[in-house]
Write a structure and sequence with these properties.
CATH superfamily of the largest domain: Intergrase catalytic core
Strand content: 5-15%
CATH topology of the largest domain: hpI Integrase, Chain A
CATH architecture of the largest domain: Orthogonal Bundle
Structural class: mainly alpha
Strand order of the largest sheet: 1-2-3
Order of helices and strands: EEEHHHHHHHHEEEHHHHH
Length: 348
């Protein structure tokens, strides 16, 4: 498209459009000086083969040639296409947090690259960025996420024809697997369950944690309306999160209904099922573990990990277990899969 500029200057705007999503990815405008009365010559870019000659033949109504378009594309930076990448993620990702995290990673990468064109970024640049962020304090999980975001971004660029090759295909980062958590053995889990039966509150709490794998924040947020005991043989709960796309249904243990009804009758909660603080929750779990004779530290996460490990040991597919826990099926959770498989192997 052409637009009028200052006297004697013709401005030619170029637009690159996504092949897959029909989104305008970036616009560039170049200017050539021409006599007012003369037809516009083909645009000349400094450094191109024709730039040495000031007598290029006039080509009326001529579009920029392929070499010129390629030269312009080399100037495109990560920040130039970041808004379009965010639109692509928003369309194809369910998680708002993933969109924000991936785009934040790309802004950090853009800062590290210092304005380097996307077509010039290579595997050495990407490895250098990962090492740099590790030196800045990135933990293994953060490193794994950054690697995933880099791979996703450059795959998107390559699939849409914005770069001739995908440097992120060669990106492999070996990270140390953190030590396995000290979860409950089968015998300890039975003792914990038995000790929790002292009160309806402790037992219902245990059924949510050890019997359904809920995490601490979910325990503290669950409300009475989220629990469904309309079918006593299939009790369930709707776990709601800040991101509605991550809401999920969980099956509760078959012996849940009786203790739950006792809990409602005795404690008469109003809206939230467990109206207490983090500290109160920790004290309850500590008391149950002490009565059960368990000396290891028992937390909500330990009980959640114990639940997941028992599911894997029982033969459930690891993908099914991750869904029960509300974890996304992505490369970011490969470490979690490894953890539960190893725990299933070493835990009695």
């Amino acid at each position: 498209m052409e637009r009028a500029g200052r006297a004697g200057v013709k401005r030619i705007a170029m637009r690159h459009t996504s092949k897959q999503h029909e989104l305008p990815l970036f616009d560039y405008e170049i200017a050539v000086t021409v006599p007012i009365s003369a037809p516009a010559p083909a645009p000349i870019i400094s450094g191109s083969p024709d730039s040495k000659s000031s007598q290029a033949p006039a080509m009326a109504n001529s579009a920029p040639n392929d070499a010129t378009a390629e030269d312009l594309q080399k100037k495109v930076t990560i920040l130039d296409v970041l808004n379009q990448y965010e639109a692509y993620l928003s369309t194809n990702c369910k998680s708002i947090n993933t969109v924000h995290s991936f785009c934040s990673d790309m802004r950090k990468l853009a800062l590290f690259m210092g304005g380097k064109g996307i077509s010039k970024i290579d595997i050495h640049d990407l490895r250098g960025f990962i090492v740099h962020m590790r030196e800045q304090g990135d933990q293994p999980k953060t490193t794994a996420r950054r690697q995933s975001s880099i791979k996703n971004f450059f795959r998107w660029l390559y699939d849409d024809g914005l770069i001739p090759r995908n440097p992120a295909e060669q990106l492999i980062f070996t990270r140390a697997i953190p030590p396995l958590p000290d979860i409950l053995t089968g015998e300890e889990a039975e003792r914990f369950d038995a000790a929790a039966r002292r009160t309806p509150l402790e037992y219902v709490l245990t059924l949510f944690l050890l019997g359904a794998g809920l995490k601490r924040s979910e325990i503290l947020e669950i409300s009475i309306s989220n629990v469904d005991i309309s079918d006593p043989d299939r009790p369930a709960a709707r776990i709601r999160t800040k991101d509605p796309s991550k809401d999920r249904n969980v099956d509760l243990p078959l012996d849940f209904v009786g203790p739950y009804r006792e809990y409602l009758a005795q404690y008469q909660p109003k809206e939230k099922l467990f109206a207490f603080t983090d500290r109160h929750l920790n004290d309850i779990l500590y008391g149950i573990a002490e009565r059960a004779g368990i000396k290891k530290k028992v937390s909500c996460q330990i009980l959640r990990d114990t639940f997941a490990t028992r599911c894997v040991k029982a033969g459930e597919d690891i993908e099914v277990v991750l869904k029960k826990l509300g974890l996304a099926l992505s490369t970011m959770n490969e470490e979690t899969k490894i953890k539960y498989r190893k725990l299933a192997e070493v835990t009695s």
